[in-house]
Amino acid sequence: LDLRAILRVICVWQRDLRERNGLSNHWTEQVIARVNARLASVFAIKREHAQHASPHAAELIDAIAELTMRGGKRLRSVAVYAGFRCISSAEEQGLERIADVAAAIELLQSYLLIQDDWMDDDDERRGGPSVHVALTRRYGQAKLGASMAILAGDLAMGAAFELLHGAPFPPLRAAEGRAAFDEMHFEVVCGQQLDLLGHADVSLIHHLKTGSYTVRGPVGLGALLADASAAQLTALMQFSRPVGIAFQLRDDLLGTFGDVRSTGKPAGHDLREGKNTALVAEARSLLGDEARARLDAVLGNQAATAAELKEITEILEKCGARARVETRLAERVAEAGRALDGAPLLPDGVAMLRELLSRIIERDR
Amino acid sequence: LDLRAILRVICVWQRDLRERNGLSNHWTEQVIARVNARLASVFAIKREHAQHASPHAAELIDAIAELTMRGGKRLRSVAVYAGFRCISSAEEQGLERIADVAAAIELLQSYLLIQDDWMDDDDERRGGPSVHVALTRRYGQAKLGASMAILAGDLAMGAAFELLHGAPFPPLRAAEGRAAFDEMHFEVVCGQQLDLLGHADVSLIHHLKTGSYTVRGPVGLGALLADASAAQLTALMQFSRPVGIAFQLRDDLLGTFGDVRSTGKPAGHDLREGKNTALVAEARSLLGDEARARLDAVLGNQAATAAELKEITEILEKCGARARVETRLAERVAEAGRALDGAPLLPDGVAMLRELLSRIIERDR
Known about the structure:
2 copies of one chain form a homodimer. By secondary structure, chain A is mainly α.
């Protein structure tokens, strides 16, 4: 039984449903283009603002812009707009109104990535140096570079709030949106803490760290801003929860089996870092004492050789850990698809959510 | 000519003006009590929220609460309320409405102090361990402790925005308040960057780092929320700018000549850290080559002995650097006082600003 084949079938089936709804395939690209344009103008304005305020602040803005514009799939922006369009049929106007909030979430992500990379000692991100590495090179000292990276993160976070504060929505809806944004921020920070502590409950970490601001938060935020009812929000959360888990499982698979050229991270990255991934958790319950000892010897060993990493990757494959994670991924994808059937949501928005789901499963980075 | 005597005369004169206005001397204590009560309830709610979300998040909330409630003069809260009362005569109701915003600024300060102490490697704050030191003890590793401190700072910042987002003001005023808060945050981060880089323009650092969120920001925020006119805001900024500078000059004097038992920081702290204070800047222009070399040898030397620190403290006194800084402080205080004379502001609010000014000059920590 080839589980990847099942995933492919599900993707085709989702795409089918999407096309039956007659939705243009260009909407994703439109959202991405609009959000990228908004981000570019935010960085230009902030840069000028920074130059006016201080002789060095633009260096921090440039570091954020470099990280934000160098890559990023804008999945969260797409999720905000899909959530909005599940409730509101305002196509063009909706995109304009949602652009600020989507850009705010992208900047929230930049702030989180900057901190995350420093905390994990990750040197690379999106195919270039992580921000604390770039700023250490610039300022010539590791502690100073790390401090500058934290300040760059602060400014990214501040810029996210500025965008959120300026988003053009009626007062009550905007207030609900701000509260949702605050809750998302709270959860992701709690998730990052558990991750750093190597907490045993990997599902809870995924729920808080990735689930919150990757799918649940953005979809809910878009829907709230379009004035969703309680029943609509419930349906969207029933979709978003399993998608968040699927996203993280895909991330874990990519971090170990992904193509280095696509992921932008060095091979065996997650293994070297000793990340408590779903793969490792499954392997621990599947492996005998000897193989488990081998896994533990390499896991988290920064000096692990390419041969050792290859050996562990094969162990994870052969023991069935990879297959189990792929099964769980397929189950979550099916659950998310079912949540949309008959939900009290607009068909265009539902089609967008299905496309988002495909993008999450099919992504190679 | 004893400059401290002049300062004392100015203080008495300000207090005189205040009492002539018949203002109760208890209002400061009322603001402090109300804001402390608000902060205590925020920490209780956040703690419950944290325990519900994650098995470890309450540890971060407790670290913020510990730092926030252990000390702090609540000068910023007092400044918000004084700014509000310069425009609005609503006494009791104003205090209730302003409490959220004042508590938000106190949490903004906690976030900044947490980051600042880690960046400066400061072990103590407000007579106890700084947050990264406390969390390093708790989690047993310096990098993990530092990461946890940054996350605690993130949560403090997030809680500040939650309070700001929930503050009970009409939509337009609340939006102006949020924009002012965002600007304040931007400036203080820019100031921190310049400070870390040892930038030569000490006045600009003071303007951005301390001025922004100690006086200008809070006073302006309180006034905006009371619907201040452009003329009123201008008058308040003419008061706030020199007070921000005076605050920083007082800080520099306390950091070198202050009583260790009051400041809560070790003796000669600013000298050991090699801080680019106004005192050091004045001394550089006043000292001969030999004494300047002596200053440079001790400045920033973490291993400096008590005798060496005492020697430098005496050099700063004898060369006239201390007297010059005290003169500048007195000039700024006088400038701030003049800005209030005949300003289009309510007398109660003006009296509060005068009292705030006295508190800033007289403080010993």
